[in-house]
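Question (not urgent): is this output format expected?
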Amino acid sequence: MKTITVATKVNGGIDKIWECWTNPEHIVNWNFAIPEWHCPKASNDLEVGKSFNYRMEAKDGSMGFDYEGTYTKMEPRSSIAYVLEDGRKVSINFTKVGDTVSIVETFEVEDINTLEQQQQGWQAILDNFKKYVESN
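Got this back:
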């Protein structure tokens, strides 16, 4: 299966970055690709075999979906892997680099959106995460 990788470097400590990435209280503030969308609710059970669910919706209520999966790997402050509801695999690695944390996210592509749309969407969410962490 073809994969795409997106990445960023976030200024801040690994504890804060991990908390913002995994705590639903924070997830709802950054988990969307464009300003016209939002993440009104999120749940997250951070254990292998457990699951997460992030509701992503257009702010005007015209459309939305549940982004959900089951964890297959969990190494706190280091790496996460999960399988989405449709069977695609995702991995995320967090690496401390000086005063920053490098986040590298690799995901198996789906066949609905173009590769460019998928890369841009996932990168936009990662960029929102960086912006959220660095402004709080």
